[in-house]
Amino acid sequence: MNRWAVAGVCLTLAEPGWGQAADEALAEAMERNPDRLLTLAEDVIAGYGGPEGLTAVGIADYIALERAAARAGAMRKLLALDLDNDGSVARAELAVAVRAESADGRGKLERQFKAADFDVSDTLDPAEIRAEGQLAALKALSDAEADVLVALMGLDANADGTLRVEEVQAAVLRFKEG
Ligand SMILES: [Ca+2]
Ligand SMILES: [Ca+2]
Question: Where residue 84 falls among pLDDT bands split at 50, 70, 90?
């Protein structure tokens, strides 16, 4: 079955206004590895679905929480260098941390600082620290992956607004039998 046929199946089940990008992302994910898509759906349904199944809100929550965790992790590393708690990391603050590091760690710290210092001001201001966090968030869960997750609701075969594992299993089976 080609991707357009899969997209067609999904579209007939989709809510109005369901995005074409999401539709295509789901079709592509199904083509690439249907079993992986099923595993992903099972995980999200188990973790974020209520007793009735997974809703669009549950999917949005999952995406936001995954990204926030990655963002916070990346920002925490940089904020650990903000010794005077003014929200920015000055070169002098970096130098203190560098002194306490091993040779390997020094190079890594320097590289991280340079990569994050977008305007080459020798200071990481709060906006630059947040931007680093956002990069990490998108690395952890890309827009393409988010599209696939959002598009999972297109597999809500009985259109009751909740997605169950059985509905995803049925869609994967239909695709494989294609
Ligand atoms: Ca500071
Ligand atoms: Ca800067």
Answer: very high
**What distance in angstroms lies between residue 106's CA and the mean position of ligand 2's atoms?**
19
Averaged pLDDT score across all residues of the chain: 89
CA distance 148 to 79: 33
Ranges of beta strands (E only) in 30-104 are 89-90
Considering every ligand atom, which ligand is closest to the CA of 123?
A: 2
Centre of ligand 1 to C-alpha 75, Å, is 13
Range 66-140 classified under CATH 1.20.1070? no
User: What are the structural domain ranges in the chain?
Assistant: 3-63+144-177, 66-140
> Which protein residues have a CB closer than 5 Å to ligand 1 (ion)?
82, 84, 86, 88
| 67 contacts 140 by C-beta, under 8 angstroms | yes
Q: What are the counts of helices (DSSP H) followed by strands (DSSP E) for the chain? A: 9, 2
Q: How many residues appear in the chain?
A: 178
- Ligand closest to Cα of 120 equals 2
Q: Which pTM value belongs to this model?
A: 0.80
